[in-house]
């Protein structure tokens, strides 16, 4: 499978990248790690006239803790970088798990978190945890920039609010309160190189006596885009974690999703998995605390 | 574990680093796509986007005008000659003549200066299709008024096989217990790592050389002679390193003559490499089968009869399908004593990529169904499943109900070895809910009893040539090294017989221009058949050497042997020894490595022989002898073999009762290979074959949309096992010495893929009471079965095959009855 | 329009002329370099046969634009042997029967190198994780895992020299 013909340029600043893609009116595409767009081009899903590589933009890399409460993740961090980061593993364990389980080692060495978000696939691994941790993404345009909550970023399968003349530059997160536990469970067929049939992100903040103060639950691959499970979040709030609570939560979680039947699984089975993974993730946290 | 004392050998029976491996380890090994020539063009093939259509017109004018394009061909250039696999069913042409029969069927081809140009030229070829109604399900293919895929077969049936050995009805009448069970699998792909690829190079006289990633250089050569209308030996087929075959490469494919035509027309070398997508469209792997088996046992659990009805979804061409349909019946006549068997098998054309032969050809899904059924019979009779199998096992030198000599069968040894190693007795029936242990047995040929085309040609011929200075022995064999280690087996056997090391033997194989005919790598034949031919060729060389020395020394032949690179025994007559040695020294005065003492070396004696009578050459051939008790039934040769392997697999699994997720924790696998010529290679085949079967059981299925396009045509969407998916494995090599095999050796490439499927099915049943008779076994199927079991309030739930397939069986029954009525007339 | 890029491949500097839409795999295998050891089995990053090391990290070279690799250090299977001496990884793959058809082997060995360079004494599970992006249809992975374990015992850092 060969690539279609296109021209190539490597941007030296984010402004340059934005300016070039803006001037090409939708016919230029940004390339970060390339693992997504290369496949899309080979399969003729996209055919840009120009590829604008941003791989030289070091300012889009790295992590920094901006303050006691603010954490920044650069979009060019690879899945490997995310999973290997001690700070991410410590503050945002569900994100680290998600990144570390995506694809294969080779893909993780190239695939960037920015690319994962922009793909906006219902099974993209890092989106659930970022929604769960309340992340905001910075989108830089020709003249200004905006911060979009991750929850509002994806609008449908493969669709997001990013304009053709915008570049995502950073992901901003609030460092979770103490005693916040995060788990990411992904259900697939094989044990490697899997796209989720269903994913559940479970982030629970507990108080000192083990009572749940806040629950943020994100379901993946069971709706056109990622969804929270507000009924389950309300159920858990103020409750001590237990087997029975986990079971109830699992049952209730099925109401938050609208899965489809496709070649990988039926809607009915996906609902059953949402239930099982919700229950399992709560139990996993209750053994962690 | 060796189960009988074997003679001590110098070379065979040990671990040997294979001869092809150093090149592969350094990246120097050339596969077909790595081959490049000056002036070479790149080829590309236009494949049909529609499943069934008449071709009204093909306009290649724009494509031809694209700069860099040197040829654009259609059937106008390649003709309408029919070829294929089984001569009685030639139904393929090089390029589509008047219609296309599946998405991916080859329509036109381009040769251009580079790959990009070639592929862009494809987009400029304008094909006018008149779409025809397409059939994707055998039910629709067999329906009244169904669209006809091949005019020669207006009922869309490739072949019907109806065999009846003994009398099943009589047996059912006196049976103590009868079960009827049904099974379906999914169409699968070979998914070998190296896509098919061809490089064709014409010479000035018009002869062609084709490098191609093939398992069967010989069959490809003969097919090209038909397709290209050229004399057979004006075409030279060379298999370079081949990145896996597994069956889909065991027959010629259209890309081969296409590349040849492009080379002939442009008079330049042409390279054509398939995209992975095209590999999927070519397919030629496991059929989708439906099985219905009605099996009867007596009070003690002895098998009395099997009535087996089966339908195969063949796809658009017959490929190996005739043979598959026969194997589907005959391979169940062993390894258990089955006195009565009725088999009715029907292979149907559909507008999908054609199915052909895949590892374990015709012995996989029937075996899975039968073995799962045996477990259920055992449960019904309150017997241990291994006990039931031991009770029914055939022994050595028996005859199956269809007339095959079993030769050396060691079902019992395999069952007991696996049972003991896995600690079956401690575990069976004693594991907690969600954990299970299950057993399966396999049975497979060690080489097909007959060649694919009707002929008396020796199945293998090997020529050994000793170089004039005696320092190199070259084995010429038309056999095909795919990475399974056949070249090394040839070298090991020759080295063993001639008293040399593997390094002393060069092997030239898979090259029709230099090697004598060998039927190639399929049906697990090469260790036994090519091995025999090698042994005989080496013995012929050895005889020449020993007779010459005996004559020279005036001593009996048996005073001498070959060993350690020497002719042992020559040291006993120092005078004669000195005579030859002095002569040798005078001739090799300036050489650095002239021997000074000890017996005559292999080199010295061969130099002597060469000087006496020219080239020292040994020839060995092999053809199966009389391997059938009776042959007077149609298709009897398919399933016949000089030897059969058996194997037992025990799987231990965990089922997550909440999600249905299955983990195969441990596998114990015992396989009787007769004698392990190269222990490392035997283990490698056992491990790989088992993993392939596990992958097929758990993950593999080709999924089509309602227009016949293969939805999962990438290796990301068509899933095969990764390193994280394989279980812990205890592989036990059983060696019971196969008299029909060279040094007692027989096959190991295919048998081990067979028993893992039923072992997993039976283990799942043991773990949670769900018997999944529908492959692949997905977590969804397991969970749904558990739900159904709970709703029905039973402790065991056997999944029913889809209603569509039930209907298909009814139709097959009707077709069978119609045939029987006609036959009786 | 073609572009000039610079790659350091197996320790040697190369100046190469590449098209914008050429992948690193195509350039390695193409007529400028003839490094055909790196194989293409799927061209979509699903199988790992094209794995090379790029700045020390294992990547699918079929998904890397040659242009984007400009300035990188690339290691391929041809560079595993140092001055004619096989690397412990190659020796172990040969001796332990980890190579059958050999088509996955170059990519597999490069993933092994990436693993051992960072984790000199991996557990068997870490080995499996390290090669989880390399498909093999022949071996069932058992002897590959054995070989990488064997190689780890003789591995001595990035030079890849036997002890």
Provide structural commentary.
The complex is a heterotrimer of chains A (289), B (825) and C (163). Chain A is built from twelve helices and 14 strands. Chain A is of the alpha+beta class and 289 residues long. A five-stranded antiparallel beta sheet of chain A has the order 4-5-10-6-7. In chain A, strands 11-12-13-14 form a four-stranded antiparallel beta sheet. In chain A, a hairpin with a 4-residue loop joins strand 4 and strand 5. In chain A, 54% of the residues are buried. The model of chain A has no long low-confidence stretch (mean pLDDT 96). Chain B is an alpha+beta fold and 825 residues long. Chain B is 31% helix and 22% strand. In chain B, the strands form seven sheets. In chain B, strands 3-5-1-12-9-10-11 form a seven-stranded mixed beta sheet, sandwiched between helices. Chain B has a five-stranded mixed beta sheet with strand order 7-15-14-13-8, sandwiched between helices. In chain B, strand 26, helix 21 and strand 27 form a beta-alpha-beta unit. In chain B, helix 7 crosses helix 8 and helix 15 packs parallel to helix 16. Chain B is globular. Chain C is built from five helices and five strands; from the N terminus they run ββαβββαααα. Chain C has a five-stranded mixed beta sheet, with helices on one face. In chain C, a hairpin with a 2-residue loop joins strand 1 and strand 2. At the A-C interface, strand 1, helix 2 and helix 6 of A face strand 4 of C.
Explain briefly what this protein structure is.
The complex is a heterotrimer of chains A (289), B (825) and C (163). With 289 residues, chain A is of the alpha+beta class.
Topology (elements, then pairings):
The complex is a heterotrimer of chains A (289), B (825) and C (163).
Chain A: E1 7-10, H1 14-23, E2 28-31, H2 35-42, E3 50-53, E4 63-65, E5 70-74, H3 79-84, H4 86-91, H5 93-100, H6 105-108, H7 113-119, H8 127-132, E6 136-140, E7 145-149, H9 150-153, E8 154-156, E9 159-160, E10 167-174, E11 180-187, E12 198-206, E13 212-220, E14 227-228, H10 230-236, H11 243-253, H12 267-288
Parallel strand pairs in A: 1-3, 2-3
Antiparallel strand pairs in A: 4-5, 5-10, 6-7, 6-10, 8-9, 11-12, 12-13, 13-14
Helix pairs in contact in A: 10-11, 11-12
Chain B: H1 21-26, E1 41-47, E2 53-59, H2 61-65, E3 69-73, H3 75-78, E4 99-100, E5 106-112, H4 115-124, E6 126-131, H5 138-142, E7 157-165, H6 168-173, E8 177-184, E9 197-202, E10 208-212, H7 217-228, E11 235-238, H8 255-266, E12 270-273, H9 276-282, E13 288-297, E14 303-315, H10 321-330, E15 340-349, H11 365-380, H12 385-392, H13 411-422, H14 424-427, E16 435-445, E17 460-466, E18 473-477, H15 486-498, E19 505-509, H16 526-553, E20 561-563, E21 566-568, H17 574-587, H18 602-613, E22 616-622, E23 644-655, E24 662-672, H19 679-698, E25 728-734, H20 756-768, E26 770-771, H21 779-792, E27 797-798, H22 803-824
Parallel strand pairs in B: 1-12, 10-11, 14-15, 18-19, 24-25, 26-27
Antiparallel strand pairs in B: 1-5, 2-4, 2-6, 3-5, 7-15, 8-13, 9-10, 9-12, 13-14, 16-23, 17-18, 17-22, 20-21, 23-24
Chain C: E1 3-9, E2 12-18, H1 24-29, E3 51-54, E4 57-60, E5 73-75, H2 88-95, H3 105-118, H4 124-130, H5 142-154
Parallel strand pairs in C: 1-5
Antiparallel strand pairs in C: 1-2, 3-4, 3-5
């Amino acid at each position: 499978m060969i690539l279609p013909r296109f021209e190539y340029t490597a941007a030296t600043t984010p402004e340059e990248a934005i300016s070039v893609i803006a001037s090409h009116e939708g016919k230029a595409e940004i390339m970060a790690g390339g693992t997504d767009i290369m496949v899309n081009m080979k399969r003729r899903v996209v055919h840009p006239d120009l590829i604008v590589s941003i791989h030289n933009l070091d300012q889009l890399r790295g992590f920094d803790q901006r303050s006691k409460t603010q954490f920044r993740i650069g979009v060019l961090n690879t899945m490997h970088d995310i999973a290997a980061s001690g700070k991410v593993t410590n503050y945002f364990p569900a994100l680290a798990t998600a990144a570390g389980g995506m694809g294969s080692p080779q893909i993780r060495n190239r695939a960037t978190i920015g690319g994962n978000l922009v793909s906006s696939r219902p099974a993209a691994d890092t989106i659930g945890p970022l929604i769960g941790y309340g992340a905001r993404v910075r989108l830089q345009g020709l003249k200004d920039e905006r911060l979009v909550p991750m929850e509002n970023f994806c609008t449908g399968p493969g669709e997001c609010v990013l304009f053709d003349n915008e570049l995502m530059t950073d992901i901003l997160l609030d460092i979770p309160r103490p005693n916040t536990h995060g788990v990411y469970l992904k259900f697939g067929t094989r044990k490697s190189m899997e796209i989720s049939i269903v994913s559940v992100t479970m982030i629970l903040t507990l108080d000192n006596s083990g009572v749940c103060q806040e629950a943020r639950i994100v379901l993946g691959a069971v709706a056109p885009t990622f969804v929270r499970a507000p009924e389950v979040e309300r159920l858990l709030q103020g409750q001590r974690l237990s087997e029975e609570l986990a079971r109830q939560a699992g049952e209730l979680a099925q109401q938050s999703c609208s899965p489809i039947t496709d070649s990988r699984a039926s809607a009915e089975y996906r609902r059953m998995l949402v239930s099982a993974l919700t229950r399992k993730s709560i139990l996993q946290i209750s053994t962690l605390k | 574990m060796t189960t009988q004392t074997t003679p001590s050998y110098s070379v065979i029976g040990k671990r040997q680093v294979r001869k092809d491996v150093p090149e592969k380890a350094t990246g120097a090994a050339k596969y077909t796509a790595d081959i490049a020539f000056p002036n070479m063009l790149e080829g590309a093939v236009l494949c049909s986007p529609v499943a069934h259509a008449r071709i009204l017109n093909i306009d290649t004018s724009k494509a031809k005008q694209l700069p860099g394009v040197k040829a654009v061909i259609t059937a106008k250039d390649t003709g309408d000659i029919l070829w294929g696999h089984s001569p009685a069913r030639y139904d393929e042409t090089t390029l589509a003549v008047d219609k296309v029969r599946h998405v991916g069927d080859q329509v036109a081809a381009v040769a251009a200066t580079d790959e990009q140009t070639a592929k862009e030229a494809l987009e400029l070829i304008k094909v006018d299709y008149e779409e025809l109604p397409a059939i994707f399900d055998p039910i629709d293919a067999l329906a009244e008024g169904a669209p006809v895929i091949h005019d020669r077969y207006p009922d869309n049936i490739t072949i019907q096989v109806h065999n009846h050995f003994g009398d099943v009805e009589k047996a059912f009448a006196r049976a103590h217990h009868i079960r009827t069970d049904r099974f379906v699998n999914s169409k699968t792909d070979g998914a070998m790592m190296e896509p098919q690829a061809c490089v064709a190079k014409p010479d000035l006289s018009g002869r062609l050389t084709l490098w191609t990633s093939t398992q069967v250089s010989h069959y490809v050569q003969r097919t090209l002679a038909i397709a290209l209308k050229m004399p057979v030996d004006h075409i030279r087929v060379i298999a370079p390193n081949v990145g896996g075959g597994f069956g889909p490469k065991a027959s010629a494919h259209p890309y081969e003559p296409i590349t040849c035509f492009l080379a002939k027309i442009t008079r330049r070398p042409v390279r054509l490499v398939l995209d992975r997508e095209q590999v999927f469209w070519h397919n030629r792997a496991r059929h989708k089968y439906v099985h219905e088996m009605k099996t009867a046992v007596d009070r003690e659990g002895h098998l009395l009869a099997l009535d087996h009805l089966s339908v195969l979804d063949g796809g658009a061409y017959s490929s190996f399908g005739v043979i598959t349909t026969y194997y589907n019946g005959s391979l169940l006549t062993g390894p258990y004593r089955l006195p009565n068997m009725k088999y009715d098998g029907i292979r149907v054309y559909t507008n999908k990529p054609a199915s052909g032969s895949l590892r374990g050809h015709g012995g996989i899904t029937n075996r899975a169904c039968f073995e799962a059924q045996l477990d259920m019979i055992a449960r019904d009779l309150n017997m241990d499943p291994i006990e039931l199998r031991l009770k029914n096992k055939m022994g050595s030198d028996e005859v199956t109900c269809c007339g095959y000599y079993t030769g050396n069968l060691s079902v019992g040894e395999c069952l007991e070895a696996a049972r003991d190693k896995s600690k079956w007795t401690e575990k069976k029936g004693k594991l907690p809910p969600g954990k299970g242990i299950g057993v399966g047995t396999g049975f497979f040929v060690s080489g097909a009893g007959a060649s694919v085309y009707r002929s008396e040609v020796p199945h293998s011929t090997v020529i050994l040539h000793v170089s004039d200075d005696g320092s190199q022995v070259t084995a010429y064999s038309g056999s095909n090294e795919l990475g399974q280690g056949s070249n090394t087996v040839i070298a090991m056997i020759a080295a063993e017989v001639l008293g040399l090391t593997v390094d002393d033997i060069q092997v030239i194989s898979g090259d029709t221009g230099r090697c004598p005919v060998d039927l190639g790598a399929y049906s697990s034949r090469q260790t036994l058949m090519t091995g025999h031919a090698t042994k005989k060729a080496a013995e012929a060389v050895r005889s020449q050497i020993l007779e010459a020395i005996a004559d020279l020394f005036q001593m009996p032949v048996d005073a001498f042997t070959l060993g350690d690179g020497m002719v042992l025994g020559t040291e006993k007559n120092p005078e004669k020894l000195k005579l030859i040695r002095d002569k040798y020294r005078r001739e090799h005065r300036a050489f650095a490595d002239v021997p000074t003492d000890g017996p005559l070396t292999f080199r010295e004696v061969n130099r002597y022989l060469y000087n006496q009578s020219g080239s020292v050459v040994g020839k060995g051939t092999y053809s199966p002898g009389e391997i059938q008790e009776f042959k007077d039934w149609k298709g009897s040769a398919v399933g016949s073999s000089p030897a059969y392997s058996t194997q037992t697999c025990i799987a231990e699994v965990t089922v997550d009762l909440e999600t249905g997720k299955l983990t195969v924790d441990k596998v114990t696998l015992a396989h009787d290979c007769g004698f392990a010529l190269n222990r490392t290679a035997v283990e490698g085949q056992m491990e790989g074959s088992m993993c392939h079967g596990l992958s097929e059981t758990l993950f593999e299925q080709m999924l089509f949309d309602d227009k016949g396009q293969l939805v999962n045509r990438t290796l990301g969407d068509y899933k095969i096992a990764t390193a994280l998916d394989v279980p812990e494995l205890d592989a036990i090599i059983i060696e019971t010495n196969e008299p029909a095999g060279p040094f007692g050796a027989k096959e190991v490439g295919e048998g081990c893929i067979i028993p893992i499927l039923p072992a997993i099915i039976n283990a799942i049943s043991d773990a949670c009471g769900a018997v999944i008779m529908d492959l692949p076994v997905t977590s969804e199927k397991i969970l749904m079965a558990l739900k159904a079991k709970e709703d029905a309030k039973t402790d065991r739930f056997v999944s029913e095959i889809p209603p569509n397939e039930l209907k298909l069986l009814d139709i097959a029954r009707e077709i069978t009855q119609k045939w029987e009525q006609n036959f009786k007339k | 329009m073609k572009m000039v890029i610079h790659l350091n491949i197996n320790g040697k500097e190369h100046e190469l002329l590449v098209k914008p839409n050429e992948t690193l795999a195509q350039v390695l295998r193409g007529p400028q370099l003839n490094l055909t050891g790196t194989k293409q089995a799927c061209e979509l990053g699903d199988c790992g046969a094209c794995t090379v090391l790029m700045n020390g990290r294992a990547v699918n070279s079929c998904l890397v634009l040659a242009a984007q690799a400009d300035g990188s250090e690339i290691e391929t299977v041809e560079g595993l042997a140092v001055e004619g001496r096989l690397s412990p990884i190659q020796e172990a793959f040969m001796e332990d029967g980890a190579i059958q058809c050999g088509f996955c082997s170059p990519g597999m060995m490069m993933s092994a190198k990436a693993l051992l360079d960072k984790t000199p004494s991996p557990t068997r599970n870490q080995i499996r994780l390290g090669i989880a992006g390399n498909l093999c249809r022949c071996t069932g992975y058992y002897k590959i895992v054995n070989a990488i374990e064997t190689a780890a015992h003789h591995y001595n850092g990035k030079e890849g020299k036997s002890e």
